[in-house]
Amino acid sequence: MPPLPLSHYAILTSMLAPALFLTATAALLTTANSRLARVIDRARGLMRELADNDDAAERVVIEERITLQRTRSRMLLRASQLFYVAISCFVGTSLSVAGDALLGHRLTQLPTLLAVLGVLAMLTASVVLAREASLAVAAVNHEMDDAHARAHRLRRPPPAP
């Protein structure tokens, strides 16, 4: 039995349903891009520190920090790309709902497939963001430990001759 034709209002309502996902994805994309900008600023600061530092041991520490920032920037880029894929899928979902109605319900699985792909991209990007946040906290903790150890060394009186 063929599906009953939908009213224009039902079709428009179905086309607007992915807007909730679009809003959530856009908010997460904004967060990812903001975090990426902060990582880039931190990496640039570390590169200036590296250029100005002559202490070999300190240079090794700074290079390790730059490597960590590079990893974080790649993760944030990947998350942003996945959010853009999700946005494209959700827009495609809306368009395919309209196309399905115009073509006499011949694309019945396409809107659902695009919505599922969009949600999967959003889920994957969120997991990548969570991993990157863990790296960010680890980096800050490492820097605080280094600063504490350096301050402790500076407070010790030099050994007596």
Question: How would you describe this structure to a colleague?
Answer:
- The protein is an all-alpha fold and 161 residues long.
- The chain has 4 helices and no strands.
- The protein has helices at 8-16, 19-52, 56-102, 110-155.
- Helix 1 runs antiparallel to helix 3, helix 2 packs antiparallel against helix 3 (56-102) and helix 2 runs parallel beside helix 4.
- The chain is rod-shaped, with a radius of gyration of 25 Å.
Keywords:
mainly alpha; rod-shaped; 161 residues
How does the SSE layout of this entry go?
Layout: H1 8-16, H2 19-52, H3 56-102, H4 110-155
Helix pairs in contact: 1-3, 2-3, 2-4, 3-4
Rg (CA only): 25 Å
What is the percentage of strand-forming residues?
A: under 5%
Structural class: mainly alpha
Approximate shape: rod-shaped
Distance from first to last alpha carbon: 98 Å
Give, in order, the helices and strands: HHHH
- List segments where confidence is low: pLDDT < 50 over at least 5 consecutive residues: none
- Mean pLDDT equals 89
Alpha plus pi helix count? 4
Largest sheet: none
Helix content: over 70%
Q: How many E strands?
A: 0
Summary of the model, kept short:
The protein is mostly helical.
